[in-house]
Amino acid sequence: MKSRDQSARIYAAKVVTDSSRKTADGEDYTYIEAKAYMVRTEKNKDLITEIDAGIKKETSVGCAVKDISCSICGKNIKTEGCEHKKGNVYGGKLCCYLLSEPTDAYEWSFVAVPAQKNAGIIKSFSPSHEKEKLAEWAREYTDELRTDIVRAAASVVPALQSDALSEICGALSIKSLRALRDALRMSAQKNLPVVRQLEAVQPDNGSENSEYKI
User: Fold this and answer.
1) Could you give phi then psi for residue 80, rounded to 5 degrees?
2) What is the pLDDT of residues 1-42, one digit of tens each?
3) C-alpha pair distances (Å), 194 with each of 28, 158, 170, 190, 191
4) How far apart are CA 133 and CA 189, in angstroms?
């Protein structure tokens, strides 16, 4: 294993049992659920795209166990071996290798065909409702920017109709909208300086209560 081949880090894992599902030999469906995080960089941009698109989905776990035994005869495959073959049925019972006393799970990899059926990515960090919420916030912020632009442009470029300006804003990104709003605000402040509505009050040194006046 080399660190340069690492794309993500698993930070939590647990064993999950789903009694509503059964394995091929009739036992409750049990699996390991791991959570991993990945940093978005130029190096792994294509990998993230393939994961989002479902191209990279199936996984396999690299692990070490103390014993591997045959489910038919119980012999240790490491030390004894046997005549039975995985996937074949003997006396109505499916032959498989039983992995006992795991000592390490050192890597998870994307593979074309996983050894364990259905092993793969089951969910992402951002559920669909979170994406919808972010999209709604983006729409609200965009509408707010457009309103500010139309308001500021009314004092800077009064000849420009609001409908035409709204159409122009519709083709701009949020970054461009923010830059246009800030530029119009600066121009509006120069053209329409702030005028105080209240004149300054001259100090009244003759009154003994002058210090309480605003």
Assistant:
1) -110, -45
2) 677 778 888 888 888 999 888 887 778 988 888 888 888 888
3) 74, 19, 31, 9, 10
4) 35
Helix (H) or strand (E) holding 107: strand 97-110
Q: What is the DSSP string of 65-92?
A: EEEEEETTT--BTTTT--S--TT-EETT
Residues 109 and 37 in one domain: yes
- CA–CA gap between residue 149 and residue 162 (Å, rounded): 9
Whether 211 is covered by a domain: the verdict is no
Full-model pTM: 0.45
Task: Report pLDDT digits (tens) over 157-194.
Answer: 877 777 788 888 888 888 888 888 888 888 877 766 55
For 109, the domain range is 3-123
Q: Output the DSSP codes for 10-31.
A: EEEEEEEEEEEEE-TTSPEEEE
Question: How many domains in the chain?
Answer: 2
Residue 202 lies in a domain: no
